[in-house]
Amino acid sequence: MTAKNWESASLREVVEKSGLGCGADPARVSVEGADLRLMPKTAVSLAMALHELCTNAVKYGALSSAAGTVLVSWHVEGPEDAPSLFLQWQEKGGPRVSRPEKRGFGSRMVERALAAELGGIVTIEFPPEGVVCTIKAPIVSGAS
Ligand SMILES: Nc1ncnc2c1ncn2[C@@H]1O[C@H](COP(=O)(O)OP(=O)(O)O)[C@@H](O)[C@H]1O
Ligand SMILES: [Mg+2]
After folding, report:
1. pLDDT tens digits for range 51-65
2. How many alpha carbons fall within 13 Å on the CB side of residue 42?
3. From 29, 50, 52, 56, mutation site for ligand 1 pocket: most ligand atoms within 8 A of C-beta
4. Is the minimum distance from the CB of 107 to ligand 1 under 6 angstroms?
5. Residue 141 pLDDT more than 60?
6. Cβ–Cβ contacts within 10 Å for residue 103, how many?
């Protein structure tokens, strides 16, 4: 995956390719949010994070059981000249989650590298009902 491949990616495309492209059952992943264009760098960072979240959901989370679901939703907030993307990955209906004793490379990468690259804030929480990852990142409007 290179930045070039993602030059014209919309957020919805990034979510559909990376958040579902790990063997997730598309029928169990809902995507909610008005589409918007992302800078290539932001698209690549988000794609990596969503791929990791998707993989974890299939391995350990809501998509590892027969009935669990994922909701990926986003909106834009903040002033028009400095908008932020607020995106949430929310699992439910899977096996009861217990807080991991040890954070692996994947979730550390998502939280730290992504936060640094996006200049935003990323948190992953492990409530018993399902993992929730919240990403808040500045977006440059009009970028392609
Ligand atoms: N979606 C999830 N649902 C439940 N537990 C999870 C989920 N994602 C991660 N975990 C827990 O957090 C641990 C660390 O995950 P991660 O950092 O991605 O490392 P790895 O995938 O290499 O084990 C996992 O071993 C698992 O116990
Ligand atoms: Mg992982």
Report:
1. 999 999 999 999 999
2. 24
3. 56
4. yes
5. no
6. 14
Tell me how far the alpha carbon of residue 55 lies from the centroid of ligand 1, in angstroms: 9
- Ligand 2 mean position, distance from CA 56 (Å): 5
Give the Cα separation of 110 and 7 in Å (integer). 21
pTM: 0.90
Residue of higher predicted confidence among 47 and 113:
47
Helices (H), 60-143: 105-108, 114-118
Domain 4-138: CATH superfamily is Histidine kinase-like ATPase, C-terminal domain (3.30.565.10)
56 Cβ below 6 A of ligand 1: yes
